[in-house]
C-alpha cells in the first residue's frame, strides 16, 4: 500500500508551515508511522530544524534531485535521504524521521522548470518511488505559489493549510484555495484538502477568535477548519531555536511533564486525525 503525501502550503511566510511540518511529522512517527519530510523552501528552515546549522552548506538537496530529473539524468535517491536526525545523541529516544534537505540552490530549480518537459510533474516522479517506503511524506512548501509549490500540489494526495488568525488571513486564503482548486481541476484530480489549521494564535485576543469564526463561516462547504488552534507560546520558538520538535522539548524540560504541553498535545491530536482521515 502506498503512503500518503501531504503538502503543507500557504503563500504567506511566517504562518507556521515549517513548525507544523516538523511537529506533525514527529507526532506521526511517535504513532509508529514511517515518515519522510521534504524541505522545499530555499530558506532551508526545515533543514535547520533537522539539525543542519547552516543549510546552504548541505551538499545533497532536493534541488539537485529536481535538476537531475529535469535533465533526465540518472541519480541515486538514497544519497539524498538522511535516514535519521543529524544528532541521535542529542535527540535520545524520540521517534526518528527521514528527510530531504533544501537550501538556496532551490532558486535555480524554479528557473530551470520554466522550459522543462512536464514541468509540473517533476517532483511527483521523484517521490513516486518513495511512496511504498513511507506511510507519510510531508512537503514543507515555501512562501510562494510558483512552480515549486505547483509541483508539490501535483505530487500531493492532500493539502494542509496553516493559517494565522489575522486581519487579512481570509483574503490570502481565497487566492490559495483558487490555486489549489485549479491544480485539482487541471493537474491532480485526486487532490484533497485536509483542512485549515490556525497556528500561533494568542488565545486571549478577541480579534483572533473573530477571524477564526469569519474563516469558518466564509469557507463553509469548501474546506474544513480544525476545531482547535495551535497557541502562540514562547516555548515553540525556543524549541525551534534548539532544533527540537515540541514532543522533544517536552521530554527535555523537567518542569513539563509528558502530556502537559498544550502545543505538543494539539499536534498529537492533529496526527491522530490525519491518520484517521487516511483510513
Q: What would you call the shape?
A: globular
Alpha carbon gyration radius = 18 Å
How many beta-strand segments? 6
**Main sheet: strands, sense, barrel:** 6 strands, parallel
Tell me the distance between the termini.
12 Å
How are helices and strands ordered from N to C? EHEHHHEHHEHEHEHHHH
β-strand percent reads 5-15%
Strand order of the largest sheet: 3-2-4-1-5-6
Unreliable runs, pLDDT <50, ≥5 residues?
none
Mean pLDDT: 89
Q: What is the helix tally?
A: 12
Class inferred from helices and paired strands = alpha/beta
Percentage of residues assigned to helices: 40-55%
Task: Describe the protein in words.
Strands 3-2-4-1-5-6 form a 6-stranded parallel sheet, with helices on both faces. 42% of the residues lie in helices and 12% in strands. Helix 1 packs across helix 12 (262-277), helix 3 runs parallel beside helix 5 (106-113) and helix 6 runs parallel beside helix 7 (147-155). The mean pLDDT is 89. It has 12 helices and 6 strands. With 279 residues, the chain is an alpha/beta fold. The radius of gyration is 18 Å and the shape is globular.
Amino acid at each position: 500500500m502506498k503512503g500518503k503525501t501531504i503538502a503543507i502550503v500557504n503563500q504567506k511566510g511566517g504562518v507556521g508551515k515549517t513548525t507544523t511540518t516538523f511537529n506533525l511529522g514527529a507526532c506521526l512517527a511517535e504513532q509508529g508511522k514511517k515518515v519522510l519530510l521534504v524541505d522545499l523552501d530555499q530558506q532551508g528552515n526545515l533543514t535547520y530544524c533537522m539539525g543542519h546549522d547552516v543549510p546552504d552548506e548541505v551538499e545533497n538537496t532536493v534541488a539537485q534531485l529536481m535538476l537531475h530529473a529535469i535533465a533526465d539524468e540518472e541519480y541515486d535517491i538514497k544519497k539524498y535521504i538522511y535516514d535519521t536526525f543529524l544528532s541521535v545523541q542529542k535527540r535520545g529516544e524520540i521517534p526518528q524521521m527521514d528527510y530531504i534537505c533544501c537550501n538556496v540552490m532551490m532558486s535555480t530549480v524554479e528557473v530551470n522548470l520554466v522550459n522543462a518537459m512536464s514541468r509540473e510533474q517533476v517532483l511527483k516522479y521523484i517521490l513516486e518511488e518513495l511512496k511504498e517506503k513511507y506511510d507519510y511524506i510531508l512537503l514543507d512548501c515555501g512562501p510562494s505559489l510558483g512552480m515549486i509549490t505547483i509541483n508539490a500540489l501535483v505530487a500531493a494526495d492532500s493539502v494542509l493549510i496553516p493559517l494565522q488568525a489575522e486581519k487579512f488571513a481570509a483574503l490570502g486564503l481565497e487566492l490559495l484555495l483558487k490555486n489549489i482548486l485549479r491544480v485539482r481541476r487541471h493537474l491532480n484530480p485526486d487532490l484533497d484538502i485536509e483542512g485549515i489549521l490556525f497556528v500561533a494564535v494568542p488565545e486571549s485576543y478577541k480579534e483572533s477568535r473573530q477571524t477564526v469564526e469569519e474563516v469558518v463561516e466564509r469557507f463553509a462547504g469548501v474546506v474544513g477548519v480544525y476545531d482547535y488552534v495551535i497557541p502562540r507560546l514562547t516555548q515553540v520558538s525556543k524549541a525551534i531555536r534548539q532544533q527540537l520538535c515540541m514532543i522533544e522539548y517536552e521530554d527535555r524540560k523537567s518542569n513539563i511533564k509528558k502530556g502537559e504541553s498544550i502545543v505538543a498535545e494539539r499536534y498529537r491530536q492533529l496526527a491522530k486525525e490525519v491518520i484517521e482521515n487516511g483510513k
